[in-house]
Specification:
5 helices, about 75% helix, mainly alpha
Length: about 110
Amino acid sequence: LSPAAATKTLAHELAQIRQHADDHLSDSRDIREVEAESVAYMVCEALGLASAEFSIGYVAGWASGDVNLVKTTATWVVKTAHAITTEAAAGLEAILALETDAADPLGALK
């Protein structure tokens, strides 16, 4: 997988984990897949990664073309995508801080 495809797949899987953690499991696999891939699409867009070519077809397929099904998932999708991107940004900031500290270990003493 390319790094962009791997990131999209990771975001999809994180969304599915959150479905369990949030006790937000639908009995319908169609809904679960629409939600998870919609989250993945939004996360990728926020990171500047193109995933529309795959994600839109995937969502449309699981939704069987039902736009209302996609609309009913929007609140959870937006909330979850925001949480994942916020956590990813915090994680990247922590990594960058560690790299900065490692590059200049005496910086704090100056």
